[in-house]
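Posting for a labmate who doesn't have an account.
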Amino acid sequence: MKRLSIIRPVFAAFCAAITIACASNSVATDTDSANTAPGNNTGANPAPATGTGQSQSQKADWAAIEKIEAEAKALAITTGCATSGECRAAPVGSRACGGPRYYLPYCAKSTDSVALYRKLDAVAKAEQAYNAKYQMASTCEFRMPPEVGVSAGACKAQ
């Protein structure tokens, strides 16, 4: 009985801490889309929309992340695969509560996967630093990689 009376408050405190940690107390949160343009309401963008008090420094930091992300996207070749089994999905970014913002489809046969994952690692690290610096918050759901397959000659999320 004594043990149970100790466990309940500890469990309640743990649940409260998780709830507080995942609460959205920032100007921006992300969504399920893969578009990351600032100010775009359809995007999974941890940067606040233009005009919401975002500093020049924060805009510049986010632009640097977008530049690295664009370089990663350029490495991800979607054509060249004949079957869905040759297609892959790579995690992109790092949401404040953990996990990638979205997954990038690519063809494993025609993409230099090592170079792609190095660049995606740089994106994730830069975004982790951004999230910490600007105290960003995001939703805490776990995002599974999408199923990918060949459609119209290119690997795409299904």
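Reply:
Got it, the structure tokens are right above this. The two ends are 52 Å apart (CA to CA).
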